[in-house]
Fold:
Amino acid sequence: MDHAKTAVLNTLLSLDSQRAYRFAMDDFVAWYCSEPRLAFNKTVVLRYKLQLESRYLASSTINLRLAAVRRLAYEAADTGLLSPELAAGIRRVKGAKKLRIRLGNWLTADEAKALLGCADIQTLRGKRSRVILALGLGCGLRRSELAHLTVEQLQRREEHWAIVDLIGKGGHIRTVPVPNWVKSAVDAWTAAGGISSGRVFRCVSKRGSVWGTGISEKVVWCVVKECAAKVGILIISWRPTIYAGSVPGSVTLPVERSSRSSSCWVT
Structure:
């Protein structure tokens, strides 16, 4: 199991995928070792699926755990630790059905403008906060993509600005169009911070000066939560879309779709 688990992790490019698969495989191995001596086959994986369902986990969580177990079986079969017939049987284990998808409630355009306008653009830190919100809303970037965005990736293509060669989750590379109002916010931040190359976002000291070579994903998360709190929005999580909730209830904002594979909503 340990050899197969290491082989699976070595095939994953994304750090987030490695973390999720490592947790899923560790959970399966812990359950497998707690049971009486069993053979690693389709019946065992079905029993594991029933155990996950008994814990009332979400369908997406169960499917992720099963996907990690299937990859574990593939690697075990490739290294000769498991017969191809048993690996094929494990592959046929179906995932949990997704009966409902939570979409959230819509946020009005005025509320979206309030979220963008809550940052104090008279200060250097406020200019950075506005750019983070603008890129999140207008381009649908993930936290990791925002944190690692560079000035060189902002290029003009066919009379339009775009983020080129953006490496996203799982190592996928795509080009994201940048609206003019987002590019204006980026220019205001880079000009004020004296940033001409390297990462777009840098740390800002208490004295209002730029330092360092970049920021972490946690800083992006804290900036969004702080700005949302000013307009009465409680951020719950950030994905390719930003999810949150207001005090009365959850709301969702659809914004400009920047590409076929990426969008950004705010709740």
Remarks:
- The mean pLDDT is 81.
- The chain has two domains: 2-91, 109-266.
- The two ends are 41 Å apart (CA to CA).
